[in-house]
């Protein structure tokens, strides 16, 4: 279910319909309290920011709801919170498996082994003491024995995607599970072939023969995470040139400026404008205009390092953003751009020559400014060069028909 910043329902999928207290056709625009009125524990979990729910939902058939609730902020422009996304993951079958375990270890053994998704047992030292075949297959291991008595970090990268050391995160995870009775975390494993996989790890404390153990359920969300990554990239990448778009530039430039502040190093911004873009479109057509934009992107891409930021921030405007280093002062960037531009015009089979106007601006950690102020300085410097070109009788590199 998706709620806006005012707590009003704006969208829901088909699977959520049975949970609604209102008719689907009138639910949109209602408060979460009205939408989830028949499920007080579910509503409480949403208010609390997530958690596990186990309750009977009134109505025809009176169904039991057992779910893991996750509440994620939705971000709008400039990272402002625009609402919340409530994900309700049905863990009824897993919960049933836990309850049957308490009644019959033999029955649990059958469920444990037959479960299609990985289920494991962890002891208080964070060692795997049992697992089903699905866990062995997910990690690509030859046998169950190769997994037992190992720890999650033994099959993981040094650090998890959130930046925490795998060894430290597993210790914290187990401690939290034993204290709170359970927890849920995202975890990255490395298969035996080196491929990374990400799982949603649900952990519940159980008692077997008087010993408290952790029942662990893995749900493979690798494809989901990859799709999320692609969606993030699409929102930050200019489709025509493959460079970062304006949003991508502002996002990454803010990170670069934080690094510059931490290292005490300057940052150089190069503001580039493709000259006579309208003339190219009017004379040769918009297809050649697109080619000119892609050629400009290639020139800038070749002029900056892989660690620098190169973006198309407007129709014919580009920006390069580079952290200064001792062996590569900022002035050398303009030299490389000019050299690559001349090389392009010598060899390119195009009906026109490319001409670029550019201006530079420098971020000084001793006199900090915002990224918008830096862009404005670069834009003004570029405009001055463009005006100087127009004043010259025969400007060097003027776009002209071959």
Throw out a few tags for this protein.
Alpha-Beta Plaits, Beta-Lactamase, disordered C terminus, alpha+beta, 5-stranded antiparallel sheet, 13 helices, about 400 residues
Gross morphology = elongated
Helix content: 25-40%
List the total number of helices.
13
Q: Biggest sheet: strands, sense, closure?
A: 5 strands, antiparallel
- Can you tell me the CATH class of the largest domain? Alpha Beta
Number of strands: 14
Computed Rg? 29 Å
Mind telling me the CATH superfamily name of the largest domain?
A: Reverse transcriptase/Diguanylate cyclase domain
Proportion of residues in β-strands: 25-35%
What does the secondary structure layout of this molecule look like, with pairings?
Elements lengths: L1 E3 L4 E3 L12 H4 L4 H4 L4 H8 L2 E8 L5 E13 L5 E10 L1 H12 L1 H10 L4 E4 L5 E4 L1 H7 L26 H15 L1 E9 L5 E13 L2 E10 L1 H15 L9 H18 L3 E8 L2 H8 L1 H18 L5 E4 L4 E7 L7 H17 L8 E8 L7 H21 L11
């Amino acid at each position: 279910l998706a709620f806006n910043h005012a707590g009003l329902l704006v969208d829901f999928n088909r699977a959520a319909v049975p949970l609604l207290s209102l008719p689907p056709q009138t639910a949109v625009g209602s408060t979460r309290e009205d939408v989830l009125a028949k499920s007080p524990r579910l509503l409480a979990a949403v208010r609390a920011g997530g958690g596990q729910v186990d309750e009977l939902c009134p109505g025809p058939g009176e169904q039991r709801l057992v779910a893991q609730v996750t509440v994620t902020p939705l971000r709008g422009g400039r990272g402002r919170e625009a609402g919340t996304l409530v994900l309700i993951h049905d863990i009824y079958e897993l919960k049933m498996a836990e309850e049957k375990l308490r009644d019959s270890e033999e029955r649990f053994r059958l469920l444990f082994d037959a479960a299609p998704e990985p289920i494991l047992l962890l002891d208080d030292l964070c060692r795997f003491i049992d697992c089903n075949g699905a866990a062995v297959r997910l990690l690509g291991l030859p046998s169950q024995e190769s997994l037992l008595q190992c720890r999650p970090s033994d099959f993981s990268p040094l650090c998890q995607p959130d930046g925490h050391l795998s060894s430290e995160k597993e210790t914290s995870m187990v401690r939290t599970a034993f204290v709170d009775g359970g927890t849920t975390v995202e975890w990255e494993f490395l298969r035996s072939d080196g491929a990374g996989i990400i799982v949603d790890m649900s952990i519940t404390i159980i008692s077997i023969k008087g010993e408290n153990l952790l029942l662990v359920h893995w749900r493979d969300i690798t494809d989901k995470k990859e799709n999320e990554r692609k969606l993030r990239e699409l929102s930050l990448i200019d489709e025509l040139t493959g460079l970062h778009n304006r949003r991508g530039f502002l996002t990454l430039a803010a990170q670069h400026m934080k690094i510059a502040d931490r290292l005490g190093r300057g940052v150089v911004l190069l503001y580039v404008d493709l000259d006579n873009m309208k003339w190219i479109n009017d004379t040769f057509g918009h297809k050649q205009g697109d080619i000119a934009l892609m050629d400009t992107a290639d020139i800038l891409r070749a002029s900056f390092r892989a660690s620098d930021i190169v973006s198309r921030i407007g129709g014919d405007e580009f920006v390069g953003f580079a952290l200064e280093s001792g062996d590569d002062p900022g002035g050398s960037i303009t030299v490389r751009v000019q050299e690559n531009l001349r090389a392009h015009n010598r060899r390119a089979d195009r009906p026109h020559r490319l001409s670029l106007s550019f201006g530079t601006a420098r971020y000084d950690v001793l006199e900090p400014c915002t990224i918008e102020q830096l862009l404005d300085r670069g834009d003004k410097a570029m405009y001055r060069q463009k005006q100087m070109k127009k004043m010259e009788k025969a400007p060097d590199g003027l776009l002209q028909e071959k």
